[in-house]
């Protein structure tokens, strides 16, 4: 999921359970603009950092525990990532979203858009 600076969801991509989220980052960031991209340690990859640099943004992503090259990040800006976590929390209040009752992906995505629209109204 891609969220804006206020923690409102912008884009969703549903993957299989065993697929890492970082693989979908280029598709989520396609066509986006902004000053910074905030993500957690799971998104620490050189490919993603290059994509973020191409869109003209700053990557605010902490390095993994054992990196060969440590990338510094702005800890004050990184604290704003809590808004993205709050977005997930708001969406998970919808039990149907949190437990994924739907068998078909298209139905789940439809409900995700509905829950996101309701979240935008708060």
UniProtKB/TrEMBL annotation:
<dbReference type="GO" id="GO:0003677">
    <property type="term" value="F:DNA binding"/>
</dbReference>
<dbReference type="InterPro" id="IPR002559">
    <property type="entry name" value="Transposase_11"/>
</dbReference>
<dbReference type="GO" id="GO:0004803">
    <property type="term" value="F:transposase activity"/>
</dbReference>
<protein>
    <submittedName>
        <fullName>IS5 family transposase</fullName>
    </submittedName>
</protein>
<feature type="domain" description="Transposase IS4-like">
    <location>
        <begin position="4"/>
        <end position="117"/>
    </location>
</feature>
<dbReference type="GO" id="GO:0006313">
    <property type="term" value="P:DNA transposition"/>
</dbReference>
<dbReference type="Pfam" id="PF01609">
    <property type="entry name" value="DDE_Tnp_1"/>
</dbReference>
